[in-house]
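User: My collaborator sent over this chain with a note saying "see what the structure looks like." That's all I know about it. Can you take a look?
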Amino acid sequence: MIRARPPVWLSCSSRFATLRPGVALAIALLALALLASAWILPDDDEPRGTALSVDVYAAVVEGLRTGGDYYAVTAQELRASRAPLHPFPAIRLPTLSVVQAALPNLASVLLLIAIAAATGFAWTRRIGGWFERGPPRITALFLLAGGMVAFVQPSLVAFHELWAGLLIAWSLPIRREDRWVEAVALALCAMVIRETAALYALAMLAAALVEGRRREALGWVAALLVFVAVLLLHARAVAMIAGPLDAVSAGRVGLHGPGLFASAMARSTALTILPWWLGAPLAMLALLGWAAAPGPLGGRAALTFGSYALAIALFARTDNFYWALAAAPAYLIGMAFLPDAARDLARPLLDRRRVRVQRITR
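Assistant: Without extra context I'll predict from the sequence alone. Here is the result:
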């Protein structure tokens, strides 16, 4: 049994503290491969889609305020922008636009800021449990702020991914062993705003099953069933207004690799101020940090972020980089775990202790 050394920054040992040499070597090689992939970008890696989505759905909200039907107004705006209407996920779920149409613009902005504040407060409390000393805690809080810079911009208030990402980031830290209903409820709210949030619910369901928490697993199943019912109704409504001559999306099998995830996460956080050749590798290193994060929250966060990394690497197109917003608010905190992760990963690889046998003759 490998004994864990005292932590460097953390208040408890990281998940890598007791790794055996073979496992540590496998993780190190995987980390190097992912880090190298961060410099491999798709040929067409230009940020498109965000401005179009914000403008279209801001216009949809105004159309609803004048008495228009959501699907008819959305189809009209998408056709005017030459955007696809097929398949049905090309049209966002109506939840956010309908709610915003019922509120003044200022109320929507204040609500967004309030959710961001609640998310930041929830993560601040959990950060205090991981990092007891001042410098590590301050570093983690700065990284949290760096991940949330895009989520307090009033100009993006009509962007569905922004709200879904905040709700996911709020749900993750408030979930505890004895209190998971609130986390499930927030995840359901995120799913009925943007269907990509279902990946988070699936990750939490998998974690609950692995940990043997049957009641919590049933809660996640119930939320997913409600989401599927809403999605089926949405698909039927889209089929009634989308015609055969409307544009069709290019598909969901991008196969652009982990580099697209790293680039997308860098664009979605404060790393966007850095050149891509520096921001993308740092974003990838944050994923390694989360893999070493201790405790149930660390494991579930690593599973969530890893799931989005895999989904973006396999299915996202270059203009779908904003999928990373679903995981962006708390993602950069992972870099605060890197000092302990690096030390604990290097220890079994560099340990060259040998057993010396001495023969004593009497």
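A starting point for your reply to your collaborator: DSSP finds 14 helices and no strands in the chain.
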